[in-house]
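Try this one yourself first.
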């Protein structure tokens, strides 16, 4: 009788590294190629950890923003932001570095502004400020203050 081969289970960190490597390679051909890779990955891997989905949605939001698809970019930003607690739980020691590398706050503010949702853009500014992500979010908030 043949010995059963156990499946190789990757850690969340390994899955994230694979996603980032695949995205880097796809992004060389432009945002459409990067988006295609991310969509295939998100749809094809039902067991993708939520922490990795947060990063994938963030990368998708960036690509969608580059393509000027603001509604889709705003939706992807929302999905990425919803999964931040899972990202923090999976990467407690690297969370701050990962959080600072995300573009979903920047792209989300841009997308909401392009869509005329200035209150939504202000909320994202406030959230970024609360997370201490940089003084430039205070400047963005100040420039949108008229919308309050």
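Now uncover the answer:
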């Amino acid at each position: 009788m043949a010995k059963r081969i156990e499946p190789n289970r990757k850690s969340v960190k390994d899955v994230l590294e694979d996603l980032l490597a695949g995205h880097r390679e796809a992004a060389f051909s432009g945002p459409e190629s990067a988006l295609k890779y991310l969509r295939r990955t998100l749809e094809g891997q039902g067991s993708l950890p939520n922490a990795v989905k947060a990063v994938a949605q963030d990368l998708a939001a960036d690509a969608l923003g580059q393509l000027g698809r603001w509604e889709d970019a705003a939706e992807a930003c929302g999905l990425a932001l919803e999964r931040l607690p899972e990202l923090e739980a999976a990467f407690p020691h690297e969370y701050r570095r990962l959080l600072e590398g995300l573009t979903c706050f920047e792209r989300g503010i841009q997308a909401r502004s392009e869509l005329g949702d200035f209150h939504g853009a202000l909320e994202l500014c406030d959230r970024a400020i609360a997370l201490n992500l940089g003084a430039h979010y205070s400047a963005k908030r100040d420039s949108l203050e008229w919308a309050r």
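Discussion: The mean pLDDT is 93. The radius of gyration is 17 Å.
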